[in-house]
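We modelled the chain as a single entity of 242 amino acids. Its sequence is:
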Amino acid sequence: MAQNSAIEWTEATWNPTTGCTKVSPGCAHCYAERMAGRLQAMGQPRYDQGFDLKLQDDIVELPLRWKKPRVIFVNSMSDLFHKAVPDEFICRCFHVMKRASQHQFQVLTKRPERVVELAAQLEWGDNVWMGTSVESAAYVERVRILKQVPAKIRFLSIEPLLGAMPRLPLKNIHWVIVGGESGPQSRPMELDWVRKIRDQCVDREVPFFFKQWGAFGADGVRRSKKANGRELDGRTWSEMPS
């Protein structure tokens, strides 16, 4: 499963695995689970098991065939570091990423502890960005774990943002993405939560990317995601790590 992406902070997706299981409140209304259900209903063979974890072995080497450089989000429909993914398979994916040096790979996980466990076995090309998802202050420990990973760029995906995070440990973090939740059961995100993260990033010179308000705008009113847009305090924040 690989394709051009509408996700604002990437250019393409590559899913050597599909499916996942929930580990924290940020997973409650998982967009990938909803998408997998639709694809299964449409008869898409990669999702014949719905959102159960599945290795897509035949596309592991696909990025090697993409000659034009791309920024690639790894596993938009899964988590490469899920406990059910064999160590050898993860190592193989990292080997491909290092060989495909024309691309930048954005690997995102809610399981940074497993990244640390496997780090010495993985090939850390400079083109591999390693990130973790953090939805509230209760999960900030994931950031501290991520800092042990020997990636050239370490980043945070704070989406959906579910609560205030006034003291993010941003030293040795190179990029922060923030976004609100979208979909039928979306939970609101408060303007002040976003501003305080933005201000911490500005103070520490960490690139800040505001992805979306989601289902609720800055005023707390439910609208379409498109209507709410992605402006924060009169401007669009689309900073990227250099």
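As a brief sanity check on the tokenised model: The mean pLDDT is 97. The first strand starts at residue 2 and ends at 4.
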